[in-house]
Design a protein that fits this description.
Layout lengths: L2 H26 L4 E2 L7 H18 L2 E7 L7 H9 L6 E7 L4 E6 L9 H4 L19 H22 L9 H39 L1
Parallel strand pairs: 1-2, 2-3
Antiparallel strand pairs: 3-4
Helix pairs in contact: 2-5
């Protein structure tokens, strides 16, 4: 091969590298959400990746979320055992299967005591960060809000346990959102109770008039 051909080939290789390097960089970028099925909104995915990347860079802890319609008719224990083997430890994995009605948090032993799983998964609006957001209506907007809220809660609790401050934290907005959820849920209960009392009183007076 003559020198001009070598030079021409080198330029082609360089051009190819310039084209493919950005693609490789995008592929190599750590994603903290798996098997989304377009359930979670794009902005929420960006925020999840931002929080996950910051926590990892400051603590070497990986927090992921797996969001899917279902994992099908498989051995669940075996499935998650195999899946989590591929995750970098220490890890926490927030799981939501919308059709199977499953919400859970799996984590490696190193994170024991670093966050309160029971509190995060509590169905009570004054405590939980995920299930209360699914009470009113189970649609993709609510799934997005619930996953983002739960992921943020896990990440922020772990950060606090390591004495880390996260610039990407959304704690204040989480509390504000849940405050409105509490107001709506408790308001619904109050209205239902008042309606029940009203019907009882109405029935009592109707019976008396007879």
């Amino acid at each position: 091969m003559i020198l001009s051909d070598i030079f021409k080939s080198s330029r082609l290789i360089a051009a190819a590298l310039l084209f493919f390097i950005p693609l490789l960089t995008c592929s190599a970028h750590e994603s903290y959400i798996f098997n989304d099925n377009k359930i979670v909104g794009e902005k929420a995915i960006d925020k999840i990746n931002e929080m996950g990347a910051e926590l990892f860079s400051k603590s070497n802890v990986s927090v992921y979320t797996f969001v899917s319609l279902s994992i099908g008719d498989v051995n669940k224990t075996e499935y998650w055992s195999n899946f989590t083997k591929e995750l970098q430890e220490p890890y926490a994995l927030l799981v939501m299967l919308t059709d199977d009605k499953v919400v859970d948090i799996l984590y490696s032993p190193e994170l024991e005591g670093r966050f309160d799983k029971d509190k995060i998964l509590s169905p009570y609006p004054e405590i939980g960060s995920i299930l209360p957001l699914l009470v009113l209506k189970k649609d993709y907007d609510n799934f997005t809000a619930a996953i983002l809220n739960g992921f943020a809660d896990i990440v922020e609790q772990i950060a606090v346990s390591y004495g880390i401050t996260l610039e990407s934290a959304i704690g204040s907005s989480n509390r504000s959102t849940l405050g409105w959820i509490r107001f709506i849920v408790y308001g619904m209960f109050a209205l239902a109770f008042l309606f029940y009392i009203y019907k009882k009183v109405q029935y009592h007076y109707a019976k008396k008039e007879k």
